[in-house]
Amino acid sequence: MFRNVIAHNARACTVSYTRSIHATPVASTVTEKVSEIADKVNKKVGQGLASAIETGEKAAGKTKETLGSTTASARQKTEDAKKTTQKTTEQAKQKVNQAAAGARETKDDMKDRMSK
User: Distance between CA atoms of 57 and 53, rounded to whole angstroms?
Assistant: First the structure.
């Protein structure tokens, strides 16, 4: 009888512990990646153009203040703003081309994986 009580208590004190593992697959498609990259490029271009516009506005404001003696300086700042805009536009074009190439590679990889 004494053995039955000890065995019964030992079973009652045993705690079972289970652990489950759950993994969620990444829900990112080629279209989403290209969209994200295009969004980043769009923002970068917008920031560059805004900066160029601000530089141009500052140059125009200074030209109005000191119209006679600073005409050459204003032209230089306007040219600098144009160059900045062109440079930013070229960078944006390159990034869009890189994003498109990356998307094509990802698409081709996915096709290869799906065909196997």
Answer: 6
Residues 66-102: tens digit of each pLDDT: 776 666 777 888 888 888 888 888 888 888 888 888 8
Give the SS3 label for residue 78: helix
Max intra-chain CA distance, the chain: 114
pTM: 0.37
Determine whether 52 is exposed, middle or buried from the number of CB atoms within 10 Å of its CB (0-12, 13-18, 19+).
buried
Q: Report the C-alpha gap between 113 and 116 in whole angstroms.
A: 5
What's the distance, CA 83 to chain centroid? 25
